[in-house]
Amino acid sequence: MKLAGCNTMTLGIFSWVTLEPREGEFNFSWLDRIMDDLARSGIFVILATPTAGKPAWLAQKYPEVLRVTADRRKRLHGLRHNHCYTAPAYRKCVGIINRKLAERYRSHPALLMWHISNEYGGECHCRLCQEAFRTWLRRKYDNNLDNLNRAWWTAFWSHTYTEWEQIESPSPIGESLLHGLTIDWKRFVTDQTIDFLRTELAPLREITPDVPVTTNFMGTYPGLNYWKFVEQLDVISWDSYPCWHSNGDTTGCGHPSDGEGRDWKVAADTAFSHGIMRSLKGGKPFMLMESTPSVSNWHPVHKLKRPGMHRLSSLLAVAHGSDTVQYFQWRKSRGSSEKLHGAVVDHTGSEHTRIFREVARVGSDLRKLDDLVGTTVPAETAIIYDWENRWAIDDAMGPVYKRNKKYEQTCKNHHYPLWTLGIPTDVISMDCDFSSYRLIVAPMLYMIREGVAERLGSFVEQGGVLVCTYWSGIVDQNDLCFLGGFPGPLRKLLGIWAEEIDALYPQERNGLIMEANNDLGITGEYELRDFCEILHAESAHVLARYKGDFYKGEPALTANNYGGGKAYYLAARVEERFLKDFYASLVDGLSLRRALAADLPEGVTAQLRSDGHRSYIFLLNFTQSPQVVDLGGRKYVEMLSGSKLGGRIDLEPFDVKVLS
Amino acid sequence: MKLAGCNTMTLGIFSWVTLEPREGEFNFSWLDRIMDDLARSGIFVILATPTAGKPAWLAQKYPEVLRVTADRRKRLHGLRHNHCYTAPAYRKCVGIINRKLAERYRSHPALLMWHISNEYGGECHCRLCQEAFRTWLRRKYDNNLDNLNRAWWTAFWSHTYTEWEQIESPSPIGESLLHGLTIDWKRFVTDQTIDFLRTELAPLREITPDVPVTTNFMGTYPGLNYWKFVEQLDVISWDSYPCWHSNGDTTGCGHPSDGEGRDWKVAADTAFSHGIMRSLKGGKPFMLMESTPSVSNWHPVHKLKRPGMHRLSSLLAVAHGSDTVQYFQWRKSRGSSEKLHGAVVDHTGSEHTRIFREVARVGSDLRKLDDLVGTTVPAETAIIYDWENRWAIDDAMGPVYKRNKKYEQTCKNHHYPLWTLGIPTDVISMDCDFSSYRLIVAPMLYMIREGVAERLGSFVEQGGVLVCTYWSGIVDQNDLCFLGGFPGPLRKLLGIWAEEIDALYPQERNGLIMEANNDLGITGEYELRDFCEILHAESAHVLARYKGDFYKGEPALTANNYGGGKAYYLAARVEERFLKDFYASLVDGLSLRRALAADLPEGVTAQLRSDGHRSYIFLLNFTQSPQVVDLGGRKYVEMLSGSKLGGRIDLEPFDVKVLS
Amino acid sequence: MKLAGCNTMTLGIFSWVTLEPREGEFNFSWLDRIMDDLARSGIFVILATPTAGKPAWLAQKYPEVLRVTADRRKRLHGLRHNHCYTAPAYRKCVGIINRKLAERYRSHPALLMWHISNEYGGECHCRLCQEAFRTWLRRKYDNNLDNLNRAWWTAFWSHTYTEWEQIESPSPIGESLLHGLTIDWKRFVTDQTIDFLRTELAPLREITPDVPVTTNFMGTYPGLNYWKFVEQLDVISWDSYPCWHSNGDTTGCGHPSDGEGRDWKVAADTAFSHGIMRSLKGGKPFMLMESTPSVSNWHPVHKLKRPGMHRLSSLLAVAHGSDTVQYFQWRKSRGSSEKLHGAVVDHTGSEHTRIFREVARVGSDLRKLDDLVGTTVPAETAIIYDWENRWAIDDAMGPVYKRNKKYEQTCKNHHYPLWTLGIPTDVISMDCDFSSYRLIVAPMLYMIREGVAERLGSFVEQGGVLVCTYWSGIVDQNDLCFLGGFPGPLRKLLGIWAEEIDALYPQERNGLIMEANNDLGITGEYELRDFCEILHAESAHVLARYKGDFYKGEPALTANNYGGGKAYYLAARVEERFLKDFYASLVDGLSLRRALAADLPEGVTAQLRSDGHRSYIFLLNFTQSPQVVDLGGRKYVEMLSGSKLGGRIDLEPFDVKVLS
After folding, report:
1. I need a surface site. Which of A460, B232, B370, B409 has the fewest CB within 10 A?
2. Residues 6+ apart with CB under 8 A from A15
3. What pLDDT does A258 receive?
4. Angle (deg, nearest 10), helices B179-207 and B387-395
5. 3-class secondary structure for A533-548?
6. In this prediction, does ipTM exceed 0.90?
């Protein structure tokens, strides 16, 4: 570990049966020994509660802890993350083992932090969860079924509930199309997981009130609304496994759009998730809890990380606000499903491997970046990526089939040009405070929860710039359509009425033609696909129009002056080239601060961390070729090498420089 | 509704829980008010029995009403159309609510007709249905298991039943390959659904003997043999949702063949279903019970209906025998799965939308076509499309996998050239009376039920022309192969023996070369794919031969003179160009009456309705371009505009004219 | 049968309910009659135990005999091969019917052999099987759970078992990723099937000790390790259904690689399975128990066997060591799922069909090959294709997804050039005796069981040549990774250390460049795909290097001199052209005996049978064109025609000649 420059280890994930081989029989000696050894070596421990994998004896004795699937089949013991979060027996056993851990290691010099469970996820449909769901619903709907029936629009298809007991969670063998039910179920799953997390935390908070806690998230994992977890946690951390070097081979990693998969696209998409993690705690640095030094083992194809890529991807996380770089796994397991997953120490068992050397180099680099700890990314721009909006969009039938609507990818597509320009950008939910931003981008804001339209209005009124797109303002928080014309409560702010939305077949294209002398200073035509909304400009003025089809000449891009600010509406899905030109124009118009005011070659990005006084510029080359960047007249210290830099500098393939 | 020109509304589908919020507690006040309002406005009501969606209380109180899936899992309450047709509890409750409805509205001035349930479909495998199936089998097989064992060929794989209780419906976790069982199960499902329909009808027939009834069909829905329903219904109606504007994009709507998806192909395929609906009652006009004014919500991609297409597709239905054009839905639901399905009134809530204007135009057009009500389509030609034949073909293992045999598409491929020529064509089952036709086309007549071969023989003997294809006369009504040489009982009539059938890979092609100086007057070569049967011409003469492969030179198309008529046999699947030339030659030879004796541009068709004396010619342009048609010397009144027409006339894109 | 030249019939498969229509009530009269008739006609009978399809009464009376699926659902009665091999009730009933059969026909003159059940396969997860599995595990692990936990590496994910009762077979709703469990379960399934086979055999061995027994295998069927069955059987037989004439159309038969599907590739792959069947009994001739004279009925597309192909494919089996050619089915069933499966006698019911004539020709040919009966294929070469290795590879997560690793196809790719060269080649497991070979090819020897590395070492030491590839020596028999550097126990023998393995996307390519003046005499470049391992040559010398990527110049092919022999290591998946050049060089260097020392056109192969003294050379033309082969100066008797041949001879399309 010292050779690798690693100073912190996460311990004890999935160790329950080793800690408690039989109910009530505990064995900490092995863990004592490791903790002591690490402490002696000056290495800190993030100690995990072992609850993500339950012992077989527990499932055998308390069958209620086994999950029931959506199609109502009780699972057998096996795999991991497969316990019911509601089951009292599980909560009881979790309480005991967590208390034991806290009591034993409360004063251990190695103990740095608690790692709660592992990658919370999934859901259970057992009778206990059905009861808990109904209780949750009674609370939400003031114990009044009429409220629920109205919110869920149950009169449709004769679904009105007349007793609470008639309500069942969504199921492929039962109800799956009642959108009010499905979205409330997802909200319940998040809340119930948090309720379980509270059970996990109780003994830790009681016994070790000063030890911070985290749990490891999974980026944009769709099953849980991470924003709801924030107040329970002291630090945000996540597990990042980008699929490098896929070069757009969609047979590999499922990148859905053309041209995706080039390493700088993967980097931008990864940065999008880093942005969420940083934004969850309002800009506070997060931790990269898991990453692989080489390959993962669950992608269709596992290319080795090319020389330099490990360092580059590690420092990408730091550039976006991570204060740590950690690994799964330290040493490769000999057996079972993850035996071929990348690790710092391979089965060969020595430090004389390429992978180990790559890891050691990162360790050595990080040692030089101590000044960055605690600094943040000074964002004037935010993208709204909202879990509930995603759920509602995925549920919606029309204008194209379910996930084909690509909400997440669309948010990433709007994020990409900002990232290439080096614009510090937060990724927030629609409930966040907008007041610190100057530019807010809200792609496909299909759901508008109560108060959000008003808050967006205030933001623009006070001088902010808002960018909205097609398919916004369609439903409220109950997934009920707004009446009186889309985009519903945004209609006045955006100054448009969206009458219809046309869906295009995957191979079909239309065009967007910029109006002459438009405010953006953009000219020419751009290609459209997937969605074309047919607008009526009301108070908005038209910046671009459709090139073809029966709505040729109708508005395709509008802007509405509103108070001191401006609200843009993009009516169709448009090619990347447009988004680059469009955001470059906005950035220019708003004089938004860039990490580096330089033209960067494609695949090279600059990112910024700052403590408010001093700035740290990360220059990252995601291409396999040498690149040249012109730093201009200013002089910088390159922190990793200690050298002074200025003017035209060279970047090696997959190179990274940190300028101070 | 008056603005839209709508004079009839269907009410009450899925309204059960609103009508009966608790068992035995009824609330008709809301429906009274709507019925009264409509009556006052001169709008008629087609009143639905609400049984397609059951209340949650019903499922809760009588679990037996919940369907059991083929893999023997009891469904939970949810969705719609998910009740057991056998369950006594369901039949009891249906009887009560239907009686209440009939009693309350028997004399209401708005009541025009009963709409029974909604889109009957699906099947149930519960114990009650197993019992009912066994009872059905005992009746069919004279309570004699030996009869059943013989018919089902159960000795194969040791499947002989020795007690009736051993018989279970087909299941993916049980028996699925015993063809006798699977086809009898499908017959039972049809019969049991009709039995349930009779339960629904009983109180209505008793209380309102003079109010006609219909139920809405779904075109070629494979699960039910609609021909069996005919005697229960007074009027045929169906729900038509073609996928316009897909332009052959098979990622969208699953059109299986090359070049499918152009709007005139979609129109011809839709006309095929209209043809079934009209033929079900021997040519009596049917009703277009549901259609969407804009988009549906269950296709992969929902393109807006282009301007004019709604009118064009509505009048296509009328051209083929519909006396109505109705919509699902009048006003868009605010919530749940169909909230984005097209409607006359959108969420915006006014008549000032493009869609509303398109609907209003259809309303105005229909007002000018009152003379057509009750007229029919004078067909001298029929295509046999037979549900049981389809089931047997889909079950058959070989010569290609299951549905890849494309029975339905093949029938539509033979229908298409007749449709483009404007030949009025019925679409019938093999049990229909053949005597009124001069040309019968029977593609892939794999199953020949008892008596059918004899009746086809008589038809030809009396001067009729019959067209058969490869893979005919293979099995009898029990799905047992005919012995003694295919096409079994058609061998003498067709004058051939089909020794073997070769299947081609999707990309493989062969050719068919016309014999010199053949009777059809067709020359040259055509492309073959999928299936090539190897024939021996016995009494038939050879019109074309194979171009390649080891059966090069063998007969590929034969004709057999038989009595006063002729029976053609097409041994291979051949390209559309051939079918066009072939049917043009037959039409010519038989001097079959065309709607309009003119050369029509591709994508334009003419269709005919007539009361026996006066004719109405529909000219329909399914292209997006203007087209010219030469009406010749004759003069017509164009009914929609009232103008007089003759000679060369112009059709706008998606235009329709009705000539009298 | 006499017209067809058939002298042996297999009877009674799936006839249980006909033999025993009710429990304890037997009816042999129909079988007596057939047996007597056949005996009188001089036709022998291979009599089947009827246990592959159970009667409905048996399932009804003893529900324990119904299989439970991996997701723990009890199946209903239906299909075939769906009984629990453990159930005492089934074993009891099987014992009775088999005893009855043996007693009745023990002395019947027609009885030649026993055919046990039919195509054993599948698995059952019922409680009885769970118990049997636990008993099997207790025995294997000395009744010590610690041993099992260590072998299965259960500490991973907290899976340590603390009671035997906690162990359940793998399940999609339970444990599926514990590799030790999954591979032991597959071993158990093989052993339990054999245990059931022993139950079947007991009465037969007791009553008819002199009648040989066989059961029909299914080539490389993945579910059972056929090597374990060998000691129970007197003769090996199998059912061969190659997919001829697919011409690389992968929509048809699932041939995974480019250019697969040409008939000579299909022939080589079929020969690979023949090679397994012959090797199972150490070179003893096997029986082709089932083949179709025309089409099967379960492929996606069923092309007719072209004229001559039936004879060619039949004699291919003989060329590779079959002493019989038999058919499924004699006469086509009239009903149910196999009614369209090819047969000698078609539904037409006469001998006047093309298919019958093809069968009769094979019968007539075989009569001329009596001298070959009992001869073998004198193999100096063997390919290791090992079932347990396959299971472990398919389970492994990484470097690409599961089956995409293509173990079986890779073995066939190495077999193909040897087959085209006419090198007699055995296909063996890693437990076979290596001492009779001079060349052993062991592609992807991922698992190395105890002792195997040592035995391969001895083989090379004593002068043998060994060819290994990427991804060898990764895990031991418990599926635990070797520590200390891959290829684990082969490291010294191969003289290399494989540090990392890179996976390529399906469209990616790299190259292999031969070193100048290498020992193999091969020059130039070859294309690589899928896998590239990064090697360190230790004692080995480098024959070729990588052309590109970050491991450009690293070793891609090495050779290690070891004792009197040599061990090659091919680090990457390479195109067929290389394998041809490589094996041609090895064959040359070792002077391995070829069937015919002639240059053969592509698609033509020569194969050898021999009794040690006299040789029989099969010349097989798998192309649809005439071909010329130069036999050189030597003269041969062509056994099928009786003519004498030498020099340049002509082969008709799909022709076969047998030279003596």
Report:
1. B370
2. A31, A48, A50, C158
3. 45
4. 150
5. EEEEECCCEEEEEECC
6. yes
In tens, the pLDDT along B85-143 reads: 999 999 999 999 999 999 999 999 999 999 999 999 999 999 999 999 999 999 999 99
Q: How many whole angstroms separate alpha carbon B642 and alpha carbon B74? A: 59
Average pLDDT over residues A576-588: 98
Single-letter amino acid, residue A387: W
Listed residue (B328, B243, B248, B262) closest to B291, CA to CA: B328
pLDDT at B251 over 70: no
Indicate the helix (H) or strand (E) that contains B212. none
Residue A63: closest CA among chain C residues belongs to which residue? Answer: C166
Among the partner-chain residues A69, A304, A334, the one whose CB lies closest to the CB of C502 is A304
Residues of B in Cβ contact (< 8 Å) with A176: 78-79
What is the pLDDT confidence band of residue C401, given thresholds at 50, 70 and 90?
A: confident
Among chain A residues, the shortest Cα distance to B13 is held by A157
Q: Would you tell me the crossing angle of helices B309-319 and B354-367 to the nearest 10 degrees?
A: 30
Matching residue, tokens 């004896």? A57
- Euclidean distance between CA atoms A247 and A257, whole angstroms: 12
Q: Name C424's Cβ contacts closer than 8 Å, sequence gap at least 6.
A: C377, C378, C379, C380, C381, C593, C595, C607, C608
Tell me which residue of A423, A399, A432 sits closest to A502, measured CA to CA. Answer: A399
Q: How far apart are CA B643 and CA C277, in angstroms?
A: 84
CB contact under 8 A, B302 and A399: yes
pLDDT number for residue A250: 53
Answer yes or no: do A338 and C163 touch at CB < 8 A: no
What 8-state DSSP symbol labels residue A24?
T
Q: Which residue of B has its CA nearest to A491?
A: B348
Q: Do B174 and C73 touch (CB under 8 A)?
A: no
pLDDT digits 0-9 by tens, A272-307: 999 999 999 999 999 999 999 999 999 999 999 999
Q: What is the pLDDT of residues A43-87, one digit of tens each?
A: 999 999 999 999 999 999 999 999 999 999 999 999 998 899 999
CA-based radius of gyration for chain A? 26
Which helix (H) or strand (E) segment holds residue C552: the answer is none
The shortest CB-CB distance from A481 to any of B247, B302, B347 is to B347
The β-bridge partners of A609 are A616
Tokens of A213: 């806690």
Distance, CA of B316 to CA of B278 (rounded, Å)? 13
Record: contact B56-A157, CB cut-off 8 A: no
Judge residue C355's burial from the number of C-beta atoms within 10 Å of its C-beta, 0-12 exposed, 13-18 middle, 19 or more buried: buried
Q: How far apart are CA B15 and CA B117, in angstroms?
A: 11
B389 within 8 A of B472, measured Cβ to Cβ: no
What does the block give as tokens for C490? 């082969």
DSSP A564-577: TEEEEEE-EEE-HH
Looking at residue A604, what DSSP letter applies?
E
Instruction: Bin A152: left if φ > 0, else alpha if -120 < ψ < 50, else beta.
Output: alpha
Residue A260: pLDDT band (50, 70, 90) is low
Sort out which chain C residues have CB atoms less than 8 A from B168's CB and list them: 76-78
A119 carries an active-site annotation: yes
Confidence class of residue B249 from pLDDT cuts 50, 70 and 90? low
What's the whole-model pTM score? 0.97
Is C119 a catalytic site residue? yes
Number of other CB atoms surrounding residue A552 within 10 Å: 12
Q: Which of A193, A81, A177 is nearest to A132 (CA)?
A: A193
Residues B20, B119, B388, B533: which is the catalytic one? B119
Nearest to A336 by CA among C266, C645, C160: C160
**Six-digit token string for A437:** 């931003």
Cα distances (Å, whole numbers) of residue C469 to C353, C463, C486, C501, C531: 50, 20, 12, 12, 10
